[in-house]
Recover the amino acids of this structure.
């Protein structure tokens, strides 16, 4: 086999890998005969790798013959809304009538809610979910009893018993690399398999990149393929809100990290009051570039106010961590009030700063609601799903999950969570990685060809003597700094 440094990174336009970059790939993928393909795979055959795409194709064919509409029901976060954009654009482009539904977690429970679908979903319609539904037994049964057809597309942890849908397109049923995909990418993979002319359309790749980075899924396997295709798009082919999003993307054609994008794009959209999450779908569909630029400027101003409020809430939360949970290696915090849409952001920030998993609980509409984020190898969704008998609803994936609980006091819920932590011990947090041991610090630019960096594919780190150096990337700079942080 020829040496890795003799091979281009791929046949799709990326710069040639440097010798040191190849050494990093060999370290990252020690059991692979082809680390380059592990790092950046070829175009996948989605229909062969992801289950039940054929069922969705049959359902769409039948819907076209009998009439009716597609009710596209999505999660109200960046992943879900970008997925709704993808589904609406493709299906309407193929002549289907599409009605999007997005419950708001500030007022609605998590899951497929019959009360939200009542009067919208009709007999003969197709209920198609995005980033949603693999735990929605009640909602799916209601839809089927109504006389609708149901196909779920989701990427969250499977929580048995599974809902009685006609099809379930969830990569968790087959394992990696499919399981790395965000929810928006699962729907995209299914629809471009059925309607190939939409494959690699610039506006769809832009939406996928935003949903992928925002949802903190691994930058591995097929996600890297999709992010590389996004890197190559011509922004001139985009219009309105999609052009603004792509232009705002930091160092898109050079080297970027997930944290750079979440700071520059995801946090500007935000969640909750005065955020852009409620208008994101309209923004993405708006072709008026000047209007979208003004809207983005307003969102940036609002995001600065939210950042100030988050700092105040974080200060309160950091002082209210449960001592017993801390002894088990977790953050558990109860707050009487959290501003709308800020629970997940707060949990993410606390997890990042303390290097441990975090569960934030607060009362909402007569229920206790939890937002949780993971660190290291702790499977947050697995932990919460294992307590399914306690929660009204629970779901998510390894790194991010949530729940709602009705009829239980905080004192009772706390005891249940603590007792489960003992049974479900925290896995050791991985030691900060080291890719190379060096005598002299190399030029960090040697590794930029490996970007983007994010979940499960962190920036390179080298060890010189007794010191560990992590590569730090800015929009226009790259350098080493001494640290014991993971770099995620």
């Amino acid at each position: 086999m020829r040496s890795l440094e003799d091979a281009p990174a791929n046949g799709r336009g990326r710069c040639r890998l440097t010798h040191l970059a190849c050494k990093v790939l060999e370290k990252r993928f020690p059991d692979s005969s082809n680390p380059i393909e592990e790092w950046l795979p070829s175009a996948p055959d989605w229909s062969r790798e992801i289950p039940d795409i054929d069922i969705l194709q049959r359902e769409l064919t039948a819907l076209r013959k009998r009439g009716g509409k597609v009710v596209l029901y999505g999660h109200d976060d960046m992943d879900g809304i970008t997925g709704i954009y993808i589904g609406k654009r493709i299906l309407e482009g193929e002549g289907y009538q599409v009605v999007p539904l997005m419950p708001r977690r500030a007022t609605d429970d998590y899951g497929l809610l019959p009360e939200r679908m009542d009067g919208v979903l009709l007999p003969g319609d197709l209920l198609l979910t995005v980033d949603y539904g693999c735990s929605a037994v009640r909602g799916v049964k209601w839809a089927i009893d109504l006389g609708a057809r149901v196909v779920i597309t989701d990427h969250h942890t499977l929580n048995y018993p599974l809902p009685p849908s006609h099809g379930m397109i969830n990569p968790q049923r087959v394992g990696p690399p499919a399981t790395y995909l965000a929810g928006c990418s699962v729907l995209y993979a299914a629809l471009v398999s059925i309607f190939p002319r939409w494959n690699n359309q610039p506006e769809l790749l832009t939406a996928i990149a935003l949903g992928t980075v925002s949802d903190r899924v691994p930058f591995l396997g097929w996600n890297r393929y999709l992010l590389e295709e996004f890197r190559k798009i011509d922004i001139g082919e985009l219009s309105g809100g999609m052009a603004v999003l792509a232009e705002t993307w930091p160092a898109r054609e050079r080297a970027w990290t997930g944290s750079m994008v979440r700071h520059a794009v995801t946090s500007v959209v935000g969640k909750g009051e005065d955020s852009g999450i409620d208008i994101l779908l309209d923004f993405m569909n708006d072709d008026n570039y000047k209007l979208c630029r003004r809207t983005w400027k307003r969102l940036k101003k609002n995001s600065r106010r939210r950042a100030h409020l988050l700092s105040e809430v974080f200060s309160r939360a950091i002082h209210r961590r449960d001592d017993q949970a801390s002894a088990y290696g977790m953050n558990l915090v109860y707050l009487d009030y959290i501003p709308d849409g800020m629970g997940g952001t707060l949990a993410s920030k606390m997890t990042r700063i303390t290097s441990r998993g975090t569960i934030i609980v607060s009362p909402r509409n007569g229920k206790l609601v939890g937002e949780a984020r993971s660190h290291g190898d702790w499977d947050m969704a697995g932990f919460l799903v294992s307590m399914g008998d306690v929660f009204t609803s629970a779901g998510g994936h390894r790194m991010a999950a949530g729940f709602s609980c009705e009829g239980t006091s905080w004192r009772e819920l706390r005891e249940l969570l603590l007792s489960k932590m003992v049974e479900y011990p925290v896995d050791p947090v991985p030691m900060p990685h080291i890719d190379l041991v060096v005598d002299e610090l190399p030029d960090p630019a040697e590794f930029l060809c490996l970007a983007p960096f994010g979940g499960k594919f962190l920036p390179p780190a080298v060890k010189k003597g007794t010191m560990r150096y992590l590569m730090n990337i800015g929009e226009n700079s790259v350098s080493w700094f001494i640290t014991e942080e993971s770099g995620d």
Notes: Residues 1-13 have pLDDT under 50 and may be disordered. The chain is about 40% helix and 15% strand.
